[in-house]
Amino acid sequence: MKLDATDLRYLTSEEFRVLTAAEMGSKNHEVVPSSLIAQISGLRSGGVNKMLGSLAKRNLIAKVQNTKYDGYRLTYGGYDYLAMRALSKRDSMYSVGNQIGVGKESDIYAVADAEGNQMVLKLHRLGRISFRAIKDKRDYMGKRKSASWMYMSRLAAQKEWAFMKILYEHEFPVPKPIDQARHTILMELIDAYPLRQVAEVESPGKLYSHLMDIIVRFAHAGLIHGDYNEFNILIRRETGEPVVIDFPQMVSTSHENAEWYFNRDVDCIRTFFRRRFNYESKLYPRFKSTLSEKGEHDFKLDIMVSASGFAKKDQKVLEEYMDAVKEAEGDDEPPNSEDEDEEEEEEEELMEESDGEEELGVKENVGEEKLPTEGTDGTELLT
Ligand code: ADP
Ligand code: MG
């Protein structure tokens, strides 16, 4: 999606008030009635209707014709706007440049602060894949809440932020985290190429051991990256040093499937080096012996992250969502020790639903999901 930085500066404070009201109303309404938006914003309803029209024209909200009532829902564009506005209010960022990456579940932009220093803004886009196909099969949102793209995207950003901060503070080779708002994180721009784009390196053996050392260091600190591959390892242009990115799927070494995740990370590197550099080594880290070694750290980052405000409960919600998406996509999955029978049944059910694939719709669908009843962290912006 294209980000329009012009709006960042030219939205009036009243329009902003209306947009924030739409976000707040989304906490417990799939479609927020115009009257509720007027009420929350505290503005005259005549004026509000005009502003709703102009916000919809800019695709910050979308009009939804409901059988019971007409109303609006916040769009990705609107949520992006609110996040960027929060970042610019705090003087963390000033302008938006080019899109430099698009992942399955994120958009990456080059942005800058007021002095023109370049940074990276990562906008999480969970729920681009509709959860309808998977929603009923797992009770991961509890009874009252159902998942929404806003809520899941925000959780992913908060998790990534918590991990990036702690890793950076402990001198792991990761980008410097700068700020976080809603579903976005702002970080240092690394002058690098993804390993995926690197055709040749001076010494594959040296890079290979370096990358395996990082896996071992992670594990000694209680962590497994969980998506450690040529897309998430950047190679600095100047020095050839690796930098690791992309942390929403990190797991603890005490996770029930820790060994499976650990081995998958190790295998990704081995396979890539074999195919790309024709390099193979008998040396590679094993989970059990790695854990039994005395690491250089006597702290446990996984425990520190849990204590840093990203609660265990949130971890669980996010993890189950991500597993469910992978399952629906037919990706590699860890063995589920909890309930094998249920797993098989679910697979059968999925196969029976021949229209399952079509349900993996684009983001137009997601607005129909119920919105969360908690936290869109926007209240403080109504100033
Ligand atoms: P996703 O979760 O969608 O995979 P990533 O965090 O892996 O998102 O980022 C996607 C791509 O964006 C990366 O492969 C890389 O090319 C680029 N990128 C992300 N973060 C940075 C950064 N800090 N510096 C430079 N490039 C980055
Ligand atoms: Mg990635």
UniProtKB/TrEMBL annotation:
<keyword id="KW-0723">Serine/threonine-protein kinase</keyword>
<keyword id="KW-0418">Kinase</keyword>
<dbReference type="GO" id="GO:0005829">
    <property type="term" value="C:cytosol"/>
</dbReference>
<feature type="domain" description="RIO kinase">
    <location>
        <begin position="65"/>
        <end position="289"/>
    </location>
</feature>
<keyword id="KW-0808">Transferase</keyword>
<feature type="compositionally biased region" description="Low complexity">
    <location>
        <begin position="373"/>
        <end position="383"/>
    </location>
</feature>
<feature type="compositionally biased region" description="Basic and acidic residues">
    <location>
        <begin position="360"/>
        <end position="372"/>
    </location>
</feature>
<keyword id="KW-0547">Nucleotide-binding</keyword>
<comment type="similarity">
    <text>Belongs to the protein kinase superfamily. RIO-type Ser/Thr kinase family.</text>
</comment>
<keyword id="KW-0067">ATP-binding</keyword>
<keyword id="KW-0479">Metal-binding</keyword>
<dbReference type="GO" id="GO:0030490">
    <property type="term" value="P:maturation of SSU-rRNA"/>
</dbReference>
<dbReference type="GO" id="GO:0004674">
    <property type="term" value="F:protein serine/threonine kinase activity"/>
</dbReference>
<dbReference type="GO" id="GO:0005524">
    <property type="term" value="F:ATP binding"/>
</dbReference>
<keyword id="KW-0460">Magnesium</keyword>
<dbReference type="GO" id="GO:0030688">
    <property type="term" value="C:preribosome, small subunit precursor"/>
</dbReference>
<dbReference type="GO" id="GO:0046872">
    <property type="term" value="F:metal ion binding"/>
</dbReference>
<protein>
    <recommendedName>
        <fullName>Serine/threonine-protein kinase RIO2</fullName>
        <ecNumber>2.7.11.1</ecNumber>
    </recommendedName>
</protein>
<dbReference type="GO" id="GO:0005634">
    <property type="term" value="C:nucleus"/>
</dbReference>
<feature type="compositionally biased region" description="Acidic residues">
    <location>
        <begin position="329"/>
        <end position="359"/>
    </location>
</feature>
